[in-house]
Amino acid sequence: MGQISISRRNEISRHSVGVPEEDRDFIDSRKIGQTLWASKWSIFSVTLLAVLLAAVVMQTITPVYRAVASLVIEPKGASLISFQPLADPNNPTSDYLQTQISLIQSRGVAERAVKQLNLTEHPEFDPRQRPYLMTRLKSMISSLSPGLFPASWSQGEALTPTQVFDATVMELMEHTSVSSVGKSQLVTIGVTLKDKQTAADAANALARGYLDSRLDAQVNDSLTASRWMDTRVVELRTQLQESENKLQAYRDAQGLVDVGGVTTITANELAKTSDRMIDARRERAEAQSQYQQVQSIAGKSASQLSTIPAVINNPVIQQFQADVAKAQAKVDELSRRYGDLHPKMVAARSDLAAAKASMATQVNQVVAGLQNNYQLAQANENALRASVNTSRAQIQDISRKEFKLRELQRDVDSNRSLYETFVNRLRETTATAEMGSSNARIVDEAITPLLPNTPRKSLIFSLVAALAFGVACALSLLRDAMKNTVKSSEDVEKKMHLPVLGVVPLLQKKNRGRIARQFERNDDTAFSEAIRTTRTGVMLSDIEARRHVLVITSSVPGEGKSAIAVNLACALGRLERVLLIEADLRRPTLAKNLGLNNGQIGLANLVNGSARSGECIQQVGDMDVLPAGAVPSNPLELLASPRFTSFLDWARQRYDRIIIDSPASHSVSDAALLCALADAVLYVVKSDSTSTPVVQRGVGQLLRNGAPVIGVILNQVSAVNARYDHQGYYGYLPGEAYQAKV
Q1: β-strand 549-554 against 618-620: which pairing, if any?
Q2: Which of 84, 220, 448, 476 lies 20 to 30 Å from 22 when distance is taken between CA atoms?
Q3: Which of the residue ranges 19-33, 66-80, 246-260 would you say has the lowest mean pLDDT?
Q4: pLDDT tier, 720 (very low <50, low <70, confident <90, very high otherwise)
């Protein structure tokens, strides 16, 4: 038996699709879907109820309408005064558009709309027609006991026209919204009110009020600019006259006629004088050098002075030196022939002395000429330097006069240009003072809205339905998580440590009334296949020893154990000789379900000796049935009598399998007694119904009493649960295939 149980448990584990032990912390989406589908009608009911409640609530809400007017606000154009700094007209920034939006939302524009539409008399804006909450509360309190509270509480505070107007303006501003459309230059003005016509009129009034305010501002700017420019022109004319007078007075005082021409001639002369001074400085340096050479050998002889480069390079000195050299050569030549007293020698020496004397005289003259040249070069240089200094001083003086003159001329030119500009602009401004231009215009005027802005019923219905659906799903999942029941074969193996011999699906409603003979009719192929699987599990448990007597029980009544017993007996009856015994002597239902006579004798009559076995046992299809018979007053004593045990021994000899339909184990102790007489016990558990602790206590009690519980039959499994269980392949074969099977 132990080997069979272990083998069966491993087989079920291999075919089950339960979550592995290491993955049980992850969310099982199939299980969640199974739970939600099982509660679909509850979820639908909650969602529908929430939508109906939302519809009722929205009937009490006053609809609010929103009217929208569209404007286009282009970049600002040219200014009236051209020399004022301008914003880049080709690249409008968002700051400019945001400024215009703020202007539309300003109090001044709202005041224009209030005055135009006379909203101070409108019940939605007039504070006198809609008392504030605090005023209403004071009135209600004072009405309870007028003597205890001031009279103003019951009468309310009287509002002045100014206060009424201010309150109306503030109310309109609160109901107004202005926004830009994306990155475009379009601006929408929306007004949300209960009165849809007033909402459209207010949106158009705000748009026109904004445009009128811009035009008024431009006209006022033009008039203000004209007045300011008129005053400024007078000032500029005076400044121009003063600058011209200063310029003419300076010319007269300095005697300047053509400063540009004078400055040009003096500069040329200065340049030429500077060139001559440079030459004179060079000549003076040369003369000074020669003079210093002469001075360095002052007091020497003419022959020594003649060695000076400045002297020896003189052409005259060179001529005299040549004459001296000839005389000397002649003396030398004659001295080789004649003596010193020879007349020719005397004459030659006399010529030599005369030549030297002439050269000495000429050397002295050259030296004196060098000194004179130095003095002249120095004097010339000094004169030119003085001339350059004088010219430079004159030029600097003229430059200073020229700078002053140009400064005065610039003042005159700038004052004249500014004066002429202002005069031209003054004429243009005066001509266009009454003509205003605006860079904003209305694109679409607000029209009366057909549908309210709030409440948005479709959106609210959608949100309520989605929220209610989500809450219902969450509650369904929470209820399922808190519901400690056995739902699948995995729960059976995990919580009770017993193999699952069969997973019997829940029959369709049309077949539930014929569940006792369902296996024979084969109306539900999945049900029939589940019974066959259970039959296979029972037969496999006979490997070690034959299990003649099978007891089928459950924890509580209503779990379908009687239906399982009948259909299992039908299935085994096709292969073996089977006797089905209805041992539930307290609430018998087997005879009625099988169509037998309710007054038919049965087990109770057999045990008390009032009838024989042949009279009590009836054949139904492929099996023999022993109904309960007349309900006795002492069913437990009958089942515990030796006569019942003897009957079981007799039945073991005549039948291959004896199936006993036992009462629920938690209801009475009959089940414990029957299980003690059985060779095997099948425990039926209703899926997603019986509490897990109840099942565990029932199975535990039987095991402690020594009952041979060989497995569990999970009954009435819903279609969704069966789809994800290991029995989901029952519907794969068509009905004919099941009918052809044994």
Answers
A1: unpaired
A2: 476
A3: 19-33
A4: low
Amino acid at 236: L
Cα(196)–Cα(199) distance, rounded to whole angstroms? Answer: 5
Nearest alpha-carbon partner for 713 in 544, 521, 553, 543: 553
Q: How many helices (H) and strands (E) does the chain have?
A: 29, 12
Answer yes or no: are the C-beta atoms of 89 and 76 closer than 8 Å.
Answer: yes
For residue 586, give both structure tokens.
Answer: 């307290």
In the numeric block, which tokens belong to residue 181?
């459309």
User: Tokens 């006795």 correspond to what residue?
Assistant: 632
Which pair of structure tokens corresponds to residue 208?
């026109």
* Cα 645–Cα 649–Cα 653 angle in degrees, nearest 5: 160
CA dihedral 542, 546, 548, 551 (to 10 degrees): -40
Beta bridge partners of 659: 550, 580
Distance CA 349, CA 330 (A): 9
Distance CA(498)–CA(509), nearest Å, equals 30
Question: Tens digits of per-residue pLDDT, 321-352?
Answer: 777 778 778 777 777 777 777 787 778 778 77
Inter-residue contact 684 to 554 (CB < 8 Å): yes
Is 71 in contact with 109 (CB distance < 8 Å)? no
Helices (H), 60-106: 94-104
- Which residue spans within 426-520 are E strands per DSSP? 440-444, 500-505
Q: What is the DSSP string of 292-305?
A: HHHHHTTT--HHHH
Q: Please answer whether residues 532 and 741 qualify as being in contact, where contact means their C-beta atoms are separated by less than 8 angstroms.
A: yes
Q: How far is CA 573 from CA 70, 171, 531, 712, 739, in A?
A: 87, 89, 12, 21, 15
CA dist., res. 115 & res. 112, Å (int): 5
Q: How confident is the model at residue 22 (pLDDT cuts 50, 70, 90)?
A: very low
- The hierarchical CATH code for the domain 486-499+546-715 is 3.40.50.300
Q: What is the pLDDT of residue 728?
A: 44
Q: Which residue has the tokens 């309150």?
A: 167
Residue 559 per-residue DSSP state: S
Contacts of 504 (CB under 8 A, 6+ apart): 527, 530, 531, 534, 560, 564, 713, 714, 715, 716, 717
> How far is 570 from 515, CA to CA, in rounded Å?
12
On whether the CB atoms of residues 213 and 104 are closer than 8 A, the answer is: no
Q: Quote the DSSP letter at residue 633.
A: S
Gyration radius from the chain CA atoms:
67
Bridge partners (DSSP) of residue 620 are: 623
Which range (85-94, 425-434, 516-525) has the least confidence? 85-94
List the structure tokens of 286: 């040369």
Q: How far apart are CA 702 and CA 665, in angstroms?
A: 8
Q: Residue 361: how many CB atoms within 10 A of its CB?
A: 12
Q: What is the mean pLDDT of the chain?
A: 75
Question: How far is it between the farthest Cα atoms of the chain?
Answer: 221
Task: Look at residues 17, 38, 40, 15 and name the one whose alpha carbon lies nearest to residue 28.
Answer: 17
